[in-house]
Structures are given as structure tokens and as C-alpha cells.
Write a structure and sequence with these properties.
The protein is of the alpha+beta class. Helix content is 16%, strand content 38%. It is elongated and about 65 Å long.
Length: 254
């Protein structure tokens, strides 16, 4: 089922649900452009005093969905979506689940360093109060063994170390409960915009992506290079963070 057909069917299902509850208004669809936000991941130093400058920050992903919380009866559009796609439920994150109310179709490979304000297309969402987003990690077309690649320089007290971190996500690996606490209304058209960001500092905490990484101690010949099959505990911790929801977010620009 393509996107337009899915939304049309969703609207019909919503009419069925609202009719059963004595209501008469169908949900309103809102189309909002989504762009890669390359304003930078932040300038905070790590706990060991390193300042990070990226030359590459690439992710492969797809199946982007936007979710809202809400009770069984209060969220009629969410119940409508579940009639169309019964399995479309978010996994709980931070103690909260959700119901799918919108999506950005397609598969993407983005680089936050080189692709500032790249248009990823339009997400279609139903009006409502959203709590989170989710996506499914994929693999790069030219490097099918990889899902994420970071490269750059870590500098402390004038000494710089080049580094690369590569991650191969398990097949079908989802990142759920991504930060998206926004109210979506038709008033956002035509000026509303969703900016997809990658950030160093944890969205839901206090840490930095590279906290605990002593680049100078790990370097061989002035370079730190972690491939996707590494078993080093430091690499595995950075990998865990990258596969969580703590370093990406969708930000609404009204």
C-alpha cells in the first residue's frame, strides 16, 4: 500500500471509529517537509576534555514513524491507524509507548556534515500531540556491511587524534522513543519544517557520545580506527549509544 492510499484508508478508518463514538469530524492530515539539520552536533567537550570535530556523520535508515501517547478512547486518530496497520506500535521507551499517527516513507542515507538542509521529502501526520518518533536502521548502498560511520578529529590541549567509528546494526534494528514532543496542527502549513538532528550530548541525559573515550591512549600512529566487528569495550559502549535514541531527534521549526 503506497503512502497516499494508506492515508486515504486511514482517514476512512477514522471516520468509522469516530462514527462509532458519536463524533463527526475526520482527522486532519498535515504534510510537513523534513530536512537534514547540519547546524552541528554541538561543541561540548567530553568528560576527558576532548573537543570533537566531525568530517563525516553518516546514517542509513528508513521507516520513520511519528507517535503519540494517549488513552484508548481519547486518541481516535491513533485507533484509526491501528485499524489500518494493526502491528504499527512503538516499543516503549522511558516508560512510554505510543500509537503511530504519521510517517516519512522511504529509505535514506544521510551525512550530517556535508548535507545541510537536504530535503528528505514530506512527512504526513494527523493533527495531534506527539510524544516520540522511531526509525529502522539500514545499510549503506556502497558499503552494505555498515549502518553508521563517524569520522573526525578529537583535540585536547593542542594534540589532535583522527578517528573513525563504524557500526553494523542488526537487521531490522529500530531506534524508538526518539525525541519528538510536538503538537501538529494544520496551522503549520506552509511554513512548518521538521529538522532531523544528530547531537553529541544525550537528549535524555547529561552525557556526551564520546564520554570515557581516551583517544590519545587508544591511538595507534595517531589514529583511532574502530571497525564494525570490534569487541573493545570502549567501542561497544559508543556503539550502544549510537544505537539508542539519545543522539538523534526531530525538531519542529514553526
Amino acid at each position: 500500500m503506497n503512502m497516499s492510499t494508506k492515508i486515504q484508508t486511514l482517514t476512512l478508518a477514522a471516520l468509522m471509529v469516530t462514527s462509532g463514538c458519536g463524533e463527526s469530524q475526520p482527522p486532519i492530515e498535515v504534510a510537513i517537509p523534513v530536512v537534514v539539520d547540519a547546524t552541528g552536533p554541538g561543541s561540548a567537550e567530553t568528560d576527558l576534555g576532548y573537543r570533537i570535530e566531525l568530517s563525516e556523520a553518516r546514517f542509513a535508515f528508513g521507516n520513520v514513524r511519528f507517535l503519540t501517547g494517549g488513552s484508548e478512547h481519547a486518541s481516535l486518530p491513533a485507533r484509526a491507524y491501528d485499524l489500518v496497520i494493526p502491528s504499527a506500535r512503538a516499543h516503549p521507551g522511558h516508560g512510554e509507548g505510543g500509537e503511530v499517527m504519521g510517517e516519512l516513507p522511504g529509505d535514506y542515507e544521510v551525512d550530517w556534515v556535508s548535507e545541510g538542509d537536504r530535503d528528505l521529502g514530506s512527512a504526513t501526520l494527523l493533527e495531534g500531540d506527539y510524544t516520540s518518533a522511531s526509525l529502522t536502521l539500514a545499510r549503506f548502498s556502497e558499503a552494505p556491511e555498515l549502518s553508521i560511520r563517524l569520522a573526525g578529529t578529537a583535540t585536547r590541549e593542542g594534540e589532535s587524534t583522527d578517528f573513525t567509528f563504524e557500526v553494523a546494526a542488526p537487521e531490522g534494528r529500530e531506534i524508538t522513543a526518539i525525541y519528538f514532543p510536538h503538537a501538529i496542527t494544520s496551522e503549520l502549513v506552509p511554513d512548518g519544517l521538521l529538522r532531523f538532528r544528530f547531537v553529541f550530548e544525550e537528549v535524555f541525559g547529561q552525557g556526551h557520545l564520546f564520554d570515557g573515550v581516551d583517544f590519545e591512549a587508544l591511538a595507534t600512529g595517531g589514529v583511532v580506527s574502530f571497525g564494525a566487528t570490534e569487541n573493545d569495550p570502549i567501542y561497544l559502549e559508543v556503539r550502544r549509544r549510537l544505537l539508542s535514541h539519545d543522539h538523534v531527534k526531530f525538531q519542529l521549526q514553526e
